[in-house]
Amino acid sequence: MKVADTLVLCVLVALAWAAAGAVRPGAATPQLGPLEAGAVARTSFSTPALRFEFPGLRVGVAEYDEGPTGATAFLFERPVALAVDVRGGAPGTMNTDVLRLGYETRMMSAVVFAGGSWHGLGAATGAADAVRSTSVRAEARLPLAGVVGAVINDFAGGRRLSGTTPDARLGRTAIETAQAGWFPLGARGAGRFAMIGGALGQLEPSGQGGAVSAIGPTRLAVFTVVNASGFVIDRDGRIARCRSQHFGEPCSSIADLLRRRVDALAAPRPRDRANIPESATEAGTPSTTLTLVVTNQRMTWAALQRLAVQVHTSMARAIQPFATAADGDVLYAATTGEIDNAALGPPALALAASELAWDAVLAALPAQESVGRIAPIQLETPSLRAFVGRYRFGPDAEVNVELASDTLVLTSQRSDILYFAAGRPTRLVPVSFNEFRLDTPRRDRMVFHDGVEGSSRTVVINPGAWEVRGVRLPD
Predict the structure, then answer these.
(1) Catalytic site residue 300?
(2) What percent of the chain has pLDDT over 90?
(3) What does pLDDT average to over the chain?
C-alpha cells in the first residue's frame, strides 16, 4: 500500500472513530450536556431515604436542580434475568422488546428511570456506557452492557417550564455514584418533579417510593416512580394526597370522587372543563408510573413474566384510575437467581410482591408544606412597584407582573401553565414583604428574591422540591 493511501486510510479510521464516539486510552470521556447550559449533577440529598439490605443491588440517584429533573439507576453486580409489563397509552422505554422474547440468559445489568419524557432516555444510554466501562459486572468479557430504561413526562400540564432534561451525563453519574442499601424517597431522582391526579384536574406533588421485605431466604424489593394520572389510594380506600389537605380538610374516598365525576359527565354541558386543565385532557402523554420488582429467588422467564403482570395489575388498587390512555406505565421484574425457596412458590411470591408494591406507592408521597389560611397583609404601593416587570421561566414561558389599583396582577400568554390561566389576570395576594399567594384555587406560592436598587431580579413558584424558577428580564 502506498504512503498516500495509508494516510487516507488513517484519516478515515480517525473520522469513523470520532463519529462513533469512541474513547482512546487517556482521552477525555465525551459528555452530552443538558439542553440548558450550566446544569450541575447533584447526587447527595438530605431527604428521607429507605435503608435496606439486598446483596448485589446498588442504587444511584442524580438530579439537575435547573430542571428540576433527575434519574434513578438500579445497578446489579451480576447480570440478572428481567421481564417487563407495559400498560397505558403513552410509554417511553428503551430495550424492552428483548425482554419479551423469553430468553433465559441473564443479560441485563441495570434499570434506569428518568424524567424528561422521551428526551430523558439519554440517561439510559449514558448509564449503559458507564456500566460497560467499569468493572462492576462479573461478566466483564461481554461486549455489550444490558441496560433497560423508561421515562416519565415531568413537563406535562405546564408544571415544569425549564428545558433541562436528563441526559447521558446524568445517567453516567447515577451509575458511577450508586451505593448499596440506600433509596431516597419522595421528590428525588426520576421522581424529582412527579405529580399525580391530572386525570381529575388536581395535580399534586408525588415522587419515588420503595419497600422491601424478606420471607425466609427470599428477598423482595419494589421501587416505583409515581407520576400517575390517577390519585394514590390508601388501604382504607381514601385518596392519600389531594388539594383540600392544603386547607386543613380531609380527602374524600376515591369511590365518592369517581362517582361525582361520572355524574358530571352526564350533565347537559357538552364539555365539562371546569376542573380539568387542557393539558390533562389533550396533552397525550402527561403521566406514567415506573416500577421495578426485584427478588433473589430463582425463577424461569415465564414465572418472572407472570410476576410482572400480577404485580402490575395489583397496582390498580393503589392508583386510581390506573393505566389510562394518558399513562405510560411500565413494570420491570428482575431476579438475581441466588436462592431456591420451595416453600414460596410463584403465586405466593407474586401476592407478597403485590402488597409490597402498594407500600412503595404510598412511600412515594413526600411531606409537603400546607398552604393553610395565611392571612394576607397590606403592602404600600412603592413596595409593590419593586416587583413589577417581565419574568422568564423557560423557553416560551414569560409572564408580566403589573400594578393595577394598588394590586399586583400577573398575566401569561401561554395556555399550558399549571399555576395560572393564560390571558387572564391573576391577582397576587401579599402574605409577607416578598411572598405572595396566587389568587387561584391552587393558591400556589410566589416568592421574589434578590432585590437590586429596589427591584426584584428572580422569582420562584412554590419554593422547595417542586419549585419553578424565573428571572426578571431587562426593561
Answers:
(1) no
(2) 58
(3) 84
